Structure formats: structure tokens, C-alpha cells
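Supplementary material to the annual report.
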Amino acid sequence: MDFKRLRILRELADRGTVGATAEAMKVTPSAVSQQLKTLQEELGVVLVKKSGRGVRLTEAGLAMAGAAAEVSTAMARAEATIDTYRRGWQTHVRAAFFPSAAEMFLPGLLHRVKAIDGLHFEAHFEDPNVAGFAGLTADYDIVLAHSVDGPDVFARLGLTVVPLLDEPLDVAVPEGHALAGKSTLRAEDVIGFPWMGVPEGFPFDTVLRQIEVQADSPAVRAQTFPDLRVLEALVSAGHGLSLLPRYTALKNQGRGFVLRPLAGVKASRSIVALARPDVAARTTIQQVLTLLKAEAQSVAEAPELRDAAHLN
Amino acid sequence: MDFKRLRILRELADRGTVGATAEAMKVTPSAVSQQLKTLQEELGVVLVKKSGRGVRLTEAGLAMAGAAAEVSTAMARAEATIDTYRRGWQTHVRAAFFPSAAEMFLPGLLHRVKAIDGLHFEAHFEDPNVAGFAGLTADYDIVLAHSVDGPDVFARLGLTVVPLLDEPLDVAVPEGHALAGKSTLRAEDVIGFPWMGVPEGFPFDTVLRQIEVQADSPAVRAQTFPDLRVLEALVSAGHGLSLLPRYTALKNQGRGFVLRPLAGVKASRSIVALARPDVAARTTIQQVLTLLKAEAQSVAEAPELRDAAHLN
DNA sequence: AAATCCATGAAGTGAGGCTACAGGGCGGCG
DNA sequence: CGCCGCCCTGTAGCCTCACTTCATGGATTT
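Predicted assembly:
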């Protein structure tokens, strides 16, 4: 089965007539007709039927045209792939960031990638659930991901995992709140207040359960929201407490809420970069991953975090 | 860019040497060498480098080989498509069922499809979250799905939606439990007992919240489990109450638990069949969908449900 | 240094897709 | 109702291009 013939079928499905198809492919109608005939003989299936003075695709023809379209897009991807290698090395790198990763890493990373001459670095936003991160590696060279249970979940899927950061979860407390006076919070301190959840994929409930066990008393769960900003605002407005990732939330600390670490409870998420192994092996990708690791390290060691060392 | 040339590159990536590639494709090494040369000139990219007395793919070559593999799989899908049309109409239909849909519909449906002569009906099990159902339509002709918010969520994605069944959620109560004596339960009746959740995608929390509002008192949430059988067993063992889909759970009623409908609270899930519109238009698919609707209706009107009419 | 393996180049051949042209079915229009 | 025009299809001939054969040269092994 030949790709050119499939393309003709696809074109015919779009244009409707043999003549228009021929024109679109810059050949004569006769050529189109002949190729269709050969395709049908080769497949042993009737793809087109005469209809009036034109032709109409059969169901099989429509189905094959659909399949042909998929082949076309695969071909287009191949063409796109080659475009990124015209200089002899991969010059286009596409990466997917979830919101807080973009906030943390992008500003610094964009500066760093400028050092690689000729590199086009494209950052895209994606906000999938945990299972969705892995699938994105089909569409992007590098996928920033976070996980509750450590980086191993992704490695089990056959992906290359580059650990970037382990980010603790702290308790966000309204400014002026009674708990804001303490530098460290214990389960008994926080158990009585209503909780606003962080988005799915964070160990919100796991941590809350730890707190319940330690305090030996049930916690009050209020609604969860899929946006850290909303949670920050809710906490600031005094609606309750929340568990927020430290490095992300720290920048906004002081706008109505403060962060306090939990004592006696282990709570953090790992932030990693994912790539398919064959992609990760490429030198350009390696370079970008190295820059990403450097950026992550400098984020973790940033002055504003050292100033906030009391959180540890 | 020609598919045959890409295949040669792919083969070379697998086999490692021009000679082996030539043998695999039943041509002479010279032919392979020439095609690779043409491909490189046409793409303007170096794909192979001499290495010792053999050759080695460059990074661009490896990347292109990967892209070529994707094109190959698309081609294979096209071939598979045509196989299902050798009789002039689609003879193979692949459908995806989530567990309780399989339990409800498959036994009867398999009988019905036997009436279509020459049809190969393949049922597969898939258990995705709500967002995942839509994606399955790329891999299956028909996808059984359930949704909390009615069928519209899928229609918005451009999918054809065939409503099959609206299944109420009832309260599962341990046999001999105080509440088992009542034929209908109200929010105040059930609010005090611990709840076991149904899997994600069921309106477990939505319903529970309605109950809380009606009873004006918080409910006690115990763990949720992604398996209805486990929940049934937990209820039977007296660990608490649960919300279970009526038609699915009814068959097991009596094995330690009974179902009681909720009054004053609207709780149900819609079960639908999904298909890409182009697929749904095919006559074979239409036939199967018709059978599926018929089976769904006969499930809803089944004797054991009429016997349990007091549930309504 | 000879032998061997592997890839590549040059020349010739053949399959197959294309054009040009002719023919035939179907619908529209006077 | 018959003529015209549109659209598809068939045939003959050309020409492109992938393949084979044969020959050459670089790299590794003994």
C-alpha cells in the first residue's frame, strides 16, 4: 500500500470529485482514476462508487480516507521533526510546564537557554492529572511533572526521569491568625480549623490523614479548588487553612497569609522532568535538561528561601 | 518524502548495517545506499555517518527513524482498517466497556450481535476516569461511558453520544441494619453513619453534600475504593453505608446488604455509548448501537427490576 | 600485507505512473 | 426531446526512478 495513493483517496474525500482532486495534486483526472483503481485492486475493496456523473466514496472508502489522514499527520510530524535538525542538531525544543513549575522555573530558564546559539525553546502550559503527564511525552520533548509518591511512578512507565526539586508542603495561615505567631505548627494546633484542599495530585488528603492520626481527631474538610491562587485568597480572607507547596506560595507570602511548616508530618511533592528515553538521549535535550537542573537548584537555594530558612 | 525511504531508514535503525537492511527488504545493499543518499539530499540533513567499516545513524537519523516508526504504525492501522471491510462492509467492531457496563450489557448484547452474520464483535475492558473516555474513541469504534453531569460533557467534545440508561444511585445498607426496615431513606436517616465512597466519576460527593444540606449536619466520610464489589463487601460487613448504582448492585442484593432509594435527593449517573461522528455514521456501527440501545432498554425493564419496583 | 567485510559509485534495465487523447454515461437546458 | 457539456475512465506512449550488476575503496582482522 502506497502513501501517495492514500493521499489521493484522502484528497478525494475532501474535494468530492476526481477532477478537483487531480487539480489539487497537479495531475490529470486520468492519473487519479488510475491510481484509485490500482488501490482498490490492491486492497480488494470497493472504495468509490459512481453516483450520477460524479463519484461517491463507499463506507470503506471513507474509513480508509480517515486512516489516510492519520498517516498524513504522522508524515507531517516526520517533516516537522526534520525541520528541527536542519542545522545538524535539534534546534527546536518543546517543553510542557504545569502552572507552578512555569512560575518557578521559566523566568530563569529562559535566560539560560539563550546561551545555546540557534536554539528555539518553546514553553507550553499543560495542567493534566498525574496520569496525564506521561502521555504528554508523546507531544513534547520535555514534560515537567509533579508526583506525590516520589519520582518512581514515571520511571515505571519506561520514561527517563530527571529529579529537579523536592518541594515541602506548608500550612498557609491568615495573617493575624492565632497560629501565625508560632514558627512551627503541630497537628494539635491545626486540627480544629477548616481546610481548603490543593488540587488533585497533591498529597492533600494523605497529609490531612496524618494530621488526624497525630491529633487523634477528625479534620474539617471544606471545598477543594484546582488553583493555588484561589486557595491563597481564601486563606487570606480567613476562610480556613490550606496546604500549599512552599516555593510556589512563598513569593506571595505576606499578601494576607503566612506559611508555617508542619512538625511531625512528612509532606512534599517531587518535581521532575520527563522525557521518552530516545528523546532524552539527544545532546540538545541533555543540554536543556542540564540547564533545567541548574535552574531548579538555584530556585531551591534562592536568597528569599534562605531568608525563610526558619521554615525548615 | 517517500514512505518507502522512511521504512529503509527505520529498518537501518533496527538492523544496524546497510547489508542487513538490504537483506531484510530483499534488495541489494547498493539500492539501500542509494535511497538513503536520496533521502538525505531531499531532506537536507545528514542521517548516517560512516563509522568504522559500517555506518551509524546521527541524532537526526535516529529522530527520523522514530518518526518513521510512527508513520509505519499509522500505515498498519490503515491496513487493519481495510481488513474489516473485505466483505464490502465493516465486519469488525471493537467496543470498550467499563466494568459495570460490561456486567450489565455484555451478556445480552453478545447474543444480539450473533444475529448479524459475519460480524466479529470484540469487547474490551477499560476503566478510565471521566476525561479518559473520550480519548478511547480513537482506539475503539464504540466506547461505553458514564457521566455524572449528564451526557452533554461528551457531546461538547464533538463526539456522537447515544444515551443508553439513566441509573439511579441507591443507599446500600447491611442486612439486619436498623435502616433496612424502611423502604425509603431520607437524609436525616442516613446522615449519622460512616460512608464508603464509590469510585471517582460517580457523584458520590455531590450526593453526599446534598444529604448534608438536607440533614443540616456533616456526614462521616470513610475511605473510597475503586471497586464496587469491595464496597458491597464492606457494607455487608457492617462498616457503613455506601451509594451504589442500582442496576449493577441489584444483582448482588441479598448477599449481606440491601438497596434503599433516597428520597428528596436526586442521584444518578447516565450511561452512554460514544463514538467519533464519522465512525458512528457507518451502517455496521449503527446496527450495533441499535442493538446496544435495545439491550439497555431490556436491562432497565428486566423482571428482577420490576420485582424491585418498590425502589422507585 | 593479504584477506575480508562493508558501503558506495556508475551504467543499464524495467516497472509503473504520468500525459494526451478518445470514448461513454449522466444531467441540464433550450 | 435531443443536443450540449461535465465528469469519469480507458488506451497508448513516454519518461522518471528504483533496482541490479559490477567495480572500487576504506577499515578491520590475522
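The interface with chain B takes residues 1-3, 6, 43-46, 58-60, 62-64, 66-68, 70-71, 73-75, 77-79, 81-82, 84-86, 88-90, 129, 131, 218, 220-221, 278, 281-283 of chain A (CB under 8 Å).
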